[in-house]
Amino acid sequence: MTIYQEYQRKLRTPEEAVEVVKSGDWVDYTTATSKPVLLDRALAARKDELRDVKVRGNMLEGPIEIMECDPEQEHFTYNTWHCSSYERKRCAKGQCYFIPMVFHNLTAYYHFFLDVDVAMISLPPMDKHGYFNLSVNTGTSAEILRKAKVVIVEINEHLPKMRGGYDDCIHISEVDYIVEGPHDPFPDLMEKPVTEQQMQIAAQVIPHIRDGSTLQLGIGSLPNAVGTMLAESDLKDLGMHTELCSDAYLKLHEAGKLTNRCKNINPGKSILGFAIGSRKLYDWLDDNPTVLAYPMDYVNRPDIIGQIDNMVSINSCISVDLFGQVSAESVGMKQISGTGGQLDFLEGASLSRGGKSFICLNSSYIDKNGEHKSNILSHFSGGDIITSPRSQVYYIATEYGVVNMEGLTTWERAEKLISIAHPDFRDDLIRAAEKQLIWRRSNRR
């Protein structure tokens, strides 16, 4: 039997393919642009036939039909590894549940601990050798597909094909069913406008980056602001080793900054786990021999990151307390995003010769009532999730400066953090530090 005959034998309609799902099953939708749109719609249509079907996803934008059709969760329960804006809103309604994680362990979670009865994944069309490329979600997909009892591939004609290091494709012999059908082109995601505060923070961070540095830019407009400013800077020969590739890296490439010449491992190559961005970004990544996609157990492994000299990690957070604890994923008990790779790159960049890891935040914000509030807190007390423990935090940056937390005492941390807090809150923070017994009498006031 040829691969094309096998393809035809496994071809099903979405409705036929989802018949394999049974009540009580664990179903995996994988990550971001690999969301199985047609299969999700067909599975939602089976709502009244099914009970207690649990679905995992990761940064999936909506609508997710199994949630839309079943807000009371009588039939489907949806869970996410990292919240997209859509998933965040569903978490706030109690219709989506977060799975705590660190990204470099994702493969191990599936390999050792998790059941996958059915994996549904969107992939580019099969190649002439019988392989389906895992595309811009290579970082998270291979082990899910290996663990699944049934694998259903949904062909999405708009997905780019990525060059990979390993675990970057699946052969038709490992696929149970194939679904075809038209898909809308991916939306041309508009970047959120960069604020004046964010540009000021970026300006504080840029002087700490040198020629030849390799960059990890996290999720959000603040790391993208740093990428934009780097593209306009005089720095040269920058590298890319990142879990998430966004349009910031495309800007660096177009500016001639992204050469990867100075990397100790994978010289000349940009390394990513997954990508989310504009259609122009996907066009750049498509079959690009200078960009390689790897699983997260390679991209985010601290000992791999630590082998790269001058590794610079730039992530954002929501708030920091005077002890140096970082909350990057919740406001109180309200889930906002996820841990992702922040801890991985904190440790990895610390291991790197010449490496630096930055966690950036606006010093303050205006709440919905128009009240001015500080993002540097005396202590966490509202159920906020601690993403990065104080023992691993490296550089903290606001628009008022950059401070290094490594090796500092509690009183030194308090002093440093207050120095980059908004001036309106510094006196109150000093008084709080005194009550918390982390302020020396001799400290300047």
Textual characterization of the structure:
With about 450 residues, the protein is of the alpha/beta class. It contains 16 helices and 26 strands. The strands form six sheets. It has a nine-stranded mixed beta sheet, with helices on both faces. An eight-stranded parallel beta sheet has the order 1-11-8-6-2-3-4-5, sandwiched between helices. A three-stranded mixed beta sheet has the order 18-17-24, with no helix packed on it. Strand 19 (about 330) and strand 20 (about 335) form a beta hairpin. It is globular. The mean pLDDT is about 95.
Q: Number of helical runs?
A: 16
Low-confidence stretches: none
- Oligomeric state as shown: single chain
> Per the principal axes of the C-alpha atoms, what is the gross shape?
globular
- In total, the number of strands is 26
Strand content: 15-25%
Rg, Å, rounded: 23 Å
The biggest beta sheet, please? 9 strands, mixed
Terminal CA distance reads: 80 Å
Mean pLDDT: 95
Structural class: alpha/beta
For the largest beta sheet, what order do the strands appear in spatially? 9-15-14-13-12-16-21-25-26
Helix content: 25-40%
